[in-house]
Design brief:
By secondary structure, the chain is mainly β. It contains one helix and 16 strands. It has one domain. The N and C termini lie far apart (45 Å). The N terminus is likely disordered.
């Protein structure tokens, strides 16, 4: 019995070591077969935040830049427009990271929303703030160079009671710069 427990313990240590090694494998953003340096920008025509408050924006975009193919980069611009009477305002742009498997995480992003509705004939404005903390938000589809947001729950910072704990963010972003983008 103890021999089997010892063997399981050794297997667990070996598996943990392999996972740690796999997690540290370096990835590089490439375009045209070489490490990419320059602006990365993407736009969307269907960005939605669904939760206690639902907001749809007709246009959203983000931009940042990378050097020497680095997979983590600070964002310089994040905007949402065409949201009807509702607003999405960015408090902090944060930074993105693309893993070698194409998973995209966003850290330090903070978004404030205001929805304007009529409830029982009275105008009601709900103000919510959402933030990311190394939050996995989607995946990169290479070739078509699109980012698909997975409906990730964005945690809500305590604001109005009508906000709920979190909201699901969905949408498809097409990478406009550099166009073709891969992660090796």
């Amino acid at each position: 019995m103890f021999k089997h427990l010892k063997m399981l313990g050794l297997l667990a240590v070996a598996a943990a070591a392999l996972m740690a090694f796999a997690g540290t494998a370096s990835a590089t953003i490439t375009s045209g077969g070489s490490a990419y340096t320059g602006e990365i920008a993407a736009t969307s025509t269907n960005s939605e935040l669904d939760g206690s408050v639902d907001i749809k924006c007709n246009h959203a975009m983000f931009a940042g830049s990378t050097t020497a193919g680095a997979t983590a980069f600070a964002l310089t611009t994040v905007t949402f427009t065409g949201c009807g009477s509702d607003t999405w305002s960015v408090l902090k742009n944060g930074s993105m990271k693309i893993s070698s498997s194409g998973t995209i995480s966003w850290d330090g992003f903070e978004l404030t929303t205001q929805t304007h509705r009529t409830v029982f004939g009275f105008p009601v404005t709900t103000h919510c703030i959402y933030a990311t903390n190394n939050t996995t938000i989607g995946t990169l589809t290479e070739g078509t160079a699109q980012i698909h947001l997975m409906g990730t729950n964005l945690p809500q910072t305590p604001t109005d009671g009508g906000c709920g704990e979190n909201a699901q963010w969905t949408g498809t972003y097409t990478i406009t710069k550099p166009g073709a983008l891969t992660v090796d």
